[in-house]
Design brief:
By secondary structure, the protein is an alpha+beta fold. It contains 3 helices and 2 strands; from the N terminus they run αββαα. The protein has helices spanning about 15-20, 50-70, 80-90, and strands at about 30-35, 35-40. It is elongated. The termini are far apart.
């Protein structure tokens, strides 16, 4: 589809193109330029929304979680919600062993 750029600086993306690209009202878009080529990409959710202070807190929490994983300080994997709840209540969480060998 071709559109004509008018004297004003705004360029309108035709509705049919927006629909095909899944662009909805309120979506944030990122524009990249390389020579005479303009690429329009959806801004990933959450990007640009955090303040630097919020980003530092989030990054610190992620680092702490990864450190816990590296040091083995993680909860066991549960097969069901009931197993997880039993663990929280201090009851046995051992899963029955499957018959047969691997």
């Amino acid at each position: 589809m071709t559109v004509t750029v008018k004297n004003r600086s705004r360029i309108v993306v035709p509705e049919v193109v927006q629909r095909r690209a899944g662009i909805k009202s309120g979506d944030r878009l990122e524009f990249k330029v390389s020579g005479r080529v303009i690429t329009i990409l959806p801004e990933p959710p959450g990007s640009g929304d955090d303040t630097p202070a919020q980003r530092r807190v989030i990054d610190a929490q992620i680092a702490e979680g990864l450190d816990d994983i590296r040091k083995g300080r993680v909860s066991p994997r549960f097969g069901t919600v009931d197993e997880m709840l039993a663990s929280l209540k201090g009851k046995s969480t051992q899963r029955p062993k499957k018959s047969g060998s691997r």
